[in-house]
Design a protein that fits this description.
Glutaredoxin, 9 helices, 59% helix, Glutathione S-transferase Yfyf (Class Pi), Chain A, domain 2, four-stranded mixed beta sheet, alpha+beta
């Protein structure tokens, strides 16, 4: 299987963690924003990442890919069959991909992607507003929602944990870490998920890559 995407994308990161949890072999082919790579464009007509080529089956969008792979490789179960638990996992997946990733994206894109990758000034006011007004509310919500088990759904690791933890890496690149005094559960939970064997090697590689980018 070929996975098209960039390590710094929260959606790609979520998929890489999912593949690792499933123990599936794949090749990550790096692509950037609007990349003209013909394989990537065939798999993702809108040039959105991630996309896959699974022995000729082409598909884009992290959630679509993950639901496809969950059906094809059902063990270990990362999307529960129980209707209520499944609904909660889908909710958290949506929360991570839209609300939380969008908040982090305003900071990451405007402070890092725009100046470092695209060579143009970002909207620093929008980034500052997201950090000051949006992020604290989302962290407050998560602090109250994380169960004592340390997993968002069914007291075990699921797609929900991957989807919501993934955007925390983009916050890290912006120099933002969860204040354990204000949000102790979020701090412990996010570190635990990003330290899982399925994600840790990618996190390490990503941090080394971004250190070079930020130092340039």
């Amino acid at each position: 299987m070929i996975v098209y995407g960039s390590l710094v994308s929260p959606f790609v990161r979520k998929l890489l963690g999912f593949l690792g949890e499933k123990g599936l072999d794949f090749e990550l082919k790096g692509v950037g924003i609007g990349d003209p790579d013909p394989g990537f464009r065939a798999a993702s007509p809108l040039a959105k990442m991630p996309a896959i080529d699974d022995d000729g089956f082409l598909l884009a969008d992290s959630s679509a890919i993950i639901h496809y792979l969950e059906a094809k490789y059902p063990e270990p179960v990362l999307i529960p069959a129980d209707p209520q638990a499944r609904g909660r996992v889908i909710w958290w997946d949506e929360f991570g991909d839209t609300v939380f990733a969008a908040c982090g994206g305003k900071m990451f894109f405007n402070r890092i992607v725009s100046p470092k990758f695209l060579g143009r000034e970002g909207d620093l006011a929008a980034a500052a507003q997201a950090e000051a007004e949006e992020l604290p509310k989302l962290l407050d919500y998560l602090e109250g929602a994380i169960p004592a088990s340390g997993y968002l759904v069914e007291d075990r690791f699921t797609l929900a944990d991957l989807a919501v933890a993934s955007p925390f890496m983009n916050l890290r690149h912006c120099g933002l870490r969860v204040d354990a005094a204000k949000h102790p559960k979020v701090a412990a939970w996010s570190e635990a998920i990003l330290s899982r064997p399925s994600l840790a090697p990618w996190v390490d590689k990503e941090e080394r890559m971004m250190a070079k980018v930020l130092a340039a």
